[in-house]
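BUG: 3D viewer hangs when loading the predicted structure for this chain

Environment: internal workstation, default settings.
Expected: structure renders.
Actual: progress bar stalls at 90%.

Input used:
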Amino acid sequence: TEEDEPPKVELKELPPHFGYAFLGNNGEWPVIIARDLSSKEKIDLINVLKTRKKAIAWKLTDIKGIDPEFCSHKILLEEEHSPKVQSQRRVNPKFHDVIKKEVEKLLDAGLIYPISDSPW
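Structure tokens produced before the viewer hung:
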């Protein structure tokens, strides 16, 4: 059945404190877990997740009670207008270093993470 087939996902680069674990064979049924778990904690967590695999929402449409339209982002354009790609904005050089240091602090704290497929 479709429920028994693993989702087709693209594994992306994760922040350093996270890693992938797999609930199936051959890299199937990927989940994201903390890297700093002990070996026993990882094994225990994976075993619990394997027994509760059907409780995990693998796709947006798997989430019961939430309309996918609610979670989808749409940009409504007027008919006579077309989408435009805007160039990246520049920051005042005086603030550039301040912003860079603040972003580095947030990265180090794990509050934000880089997006590897960003066009910027």
